């Protein structure tokens, strides 16, 4: 199922929540994203030492919990990680925010809205992710799994064929080419690509080629209105941004 009608391409995904205003990957950020009118949220997920799925972008707490002992996610238990303040670094008013679990994040998703679950670790998360998603209250079409790791994409599609699974890519020296992207999507069974929003590479023909091959084209992380309008005009299925209210309003005009 397409995330949005390519005719209007106004489907806005809040990157790590409303992360321009609130501390990324926290319940405060996700709840604010819904208040700001986001169509979906995107969050990053790792597995803890005791096999719990938590929402954090980095493999440790250094960046989002400055001034405290650094904990690695894979080397710490959920209880240990939830002792750490992950909100105060952004603003004092968010002091006391704790690292949420996947279940807690899923519970924030309203009817008719979606979540993009980015896997930041390896395939070890998949046997845990499957029951967590399937036992949630969300419908299949409300969930997408996204990852840079081709093995994760391939195995996720095999294990959970009911969900959209998109491969993520950025670019270096003009690569991967659009032909290479399509080959990867075909080989992994992915439903689409989540592309870095690089207008020096992406144009109408680039997006058309991907869509005509039968795949969705999504773009991240777009915070400039002019860029968002360009990607919308190309037919992007979704636009991920730190500023869901700003981009959403601009695209609705």
Q: Which descriptor suits the 3D outline?
A: globular
**The top level CATH class name:** Alpha Beta
Encode the helix/strand succession as letters: EHEEHHEHEHEHEHEHEH
Q: DSSP strand (E) fraction? A: 15-25%
Give start-end ranges of low-pLDDT stretches. Answer: 1-9
In total, the number of domains comes to 1
The helicity comes to 25-40%
CATH topology: TIM Barrel
The CATH superfamily is identified as Phosphatidylinositol (PI) phosphodiesterase
* The CATH architecture: Alpha-Beta Barrel
Explain what you see:
- This protein has one domain (12-252): Phosphatidylinositol (PI) phosphodiesterase (TIM Barrel, Alpha-Beta Barrel).
- Residues 1-9 have low confidence and may be disordered.
- It is built from nine helices and nine strands.
- Strands 1-2-4-5-6-7-8-9 form an eight-stranded parallel beta barrel, surrounded by six helices.
- A hairpin with a 5-residue loop joins strand 2 and strand 3.
- It is globular.
- The two termini are 25 Å apart.
- The protein has 253 residues and is of the alpha/beta class.
- The longest helix has 11 residues, at 178-188.
């Amino acid at each position: 199922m397409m995330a949005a009608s390519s005719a209007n391409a106004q489907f806005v995904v809040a990157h790590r929540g409303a992360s321009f205003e609130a501390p990324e990957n926290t319940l405060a950020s996700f709840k604010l994203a819904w208040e700001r009118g986001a169509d979906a949220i995107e969050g990053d997920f790792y597995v803890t030492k005791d096999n719990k799925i938590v929402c954090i972008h980095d493999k440790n707490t250094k960046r989002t919990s400055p001034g405290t002992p650094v904990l690695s996610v894979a080397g710490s238990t959920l209880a240990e990680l939830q002792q750490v303040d992950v909100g105060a670094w952004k603003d004092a008013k968010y002091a006391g925010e704790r690292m949420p679990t996947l279940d807690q994040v899923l519970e924030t998703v309203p009817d008719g809205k979606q979540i993009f679950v980015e896997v930041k670790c390896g395939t070890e998360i998949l046997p845990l992710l499957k029951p967590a998603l399937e036992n949630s209250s969300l419908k299949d079409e409300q969930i997408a799994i996204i990852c840079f790791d081709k093995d994760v994409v391939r195995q996720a599609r095999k294990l959970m064929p009911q969900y959209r699974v998109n491969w993520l890519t950025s670019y270096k020296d003009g690569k991967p080419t659009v032909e290479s992207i399509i080959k990867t999507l075909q080989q992994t069974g992915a439903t689409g690509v989540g592309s870095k929003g690089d207008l020096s590479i992406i144009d109408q023909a680039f997006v058309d080629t991907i869509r005509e091959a039968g795949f969705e084209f999504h773009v991240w992380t777009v915070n400039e209105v002019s860029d968002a309008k360009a990607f919308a005009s190309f037919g992007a299925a979704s636009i991920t941004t730190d500023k869901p209210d700003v981009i959403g309003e601009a695209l609705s005009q």
